[in-house]
Amino acid sequence: MGELTVEKLSKSFDNVPVLDNVSLHCAQGELLVLLGPSGCGKSTLLRLVAGLEEPDNGEIYLAGRRIDHLSPRERNVALVFQNYSLYPHMSVEKNLAFPLKVARVDRRTIRERVQHVAQLVGMETMLTKKPGQLSGGQRQRVALGRAIIRQPELFLLDEPLSNLDADLRVRMRREIVRLQKKLQVATIHVTHDQAEALTMADRIAVLNEGRLQQVGTPDQLYNHPANLFVAEFIGQPRMNILKGRIERQLLYPFGLSLLNRMVKAPGAEVLIGIRPEAVQLRPDGEYEATAASCEYLGDHYVAALDFQDSRLICSHLRRTLELGQRVRFHVDASDLHFFDPSGGQNLEPQ
Prior knowledge:
Layout lengths: L3 E10 L2 E11 L4 E5 L6 H9 L6 E6 L2 E2 L10 E4 L11 H11 L4 H14 L15 H13 L5 E5 L7 H18 L2 E6 L2 H7 L2 E6 L2 E6 L1 H6 L4 H6 L6 E8 L2 E3 L3 E2 L11 E6 L5 E2 L5 E10 L4 E7 L2 E8 L8 E5 L5 E4 L11
Parallel strand pairs: 3-8, 3-9, 6-7, 7-8
Antiparallel strand pairs: 1-2, 1-4, 4-5, 9-10, 11-12, 11-14, 12-13, 14-20, 15-19, 16-17, 16-19, 17-18
């Protein structure tokens, strides 16, 4: 089994940069999620690693050997697409066996590995079925099984859950994590769904416009975002961002002391980030706001509050608010994030 290292990878199409000097590492047994909006370069990076595209610059190493000059077949990498890519005229058993037949593995070994992998993905009772007779989740299990059966050094999953309904997505992401931890194979999973990334990943790599924004654990990205893009992209509802200023170690518009914070602001003006759950409604709150809207989400409410010249989203409320209702709220200085208004970088050392 191996680990993947990508060094200074760049790729353009028709002189339009898609990836710009990206370096990444995925350790053996790690599940690394590539997260970012559509068109940010996630799938292109996966295709470069798989050998379906050639990089303009950079190097790719798998298990210590350079592979960017090798054909896809020589790389020992398995790629699973969102559209399953199963052969419709073949049974589940034949779909699973196909990669081994192409590799000219003997029949006995094929039979044994098909049975083993079918049990791993929970399809042992469906071996005679054809893809058209299976549900979306079952087809995705077969696609995963066909990748597993090759015993690759690296799994590449390109939005494999995007065609499934919400409930099945939740179950399948648990299943993928279970399989990945059992097999202990380095895995890169591409998604634009932050909930998928946060629940599945050992680490997350956030891309935007072809550039790597931050790599870290889900907790690191949520609680210590490197810049404004990561701060707003990770978290639902999105982080509140409002204009502020620091004067004599006091933060306005809240008047909070920052004596215990290492905020390296280039000037007085800053952007303040507040997670919606950190806006605490309570009768003794220091600040007053007006309810602009309130949405019911089943187990809690989410409200929009007008505070001075800003709008704050407040989540996890246990009661509804009436439009125009005056409320009081509290924010703790330890829950605030600070960003450079010009470049968006986090102003506190990580």
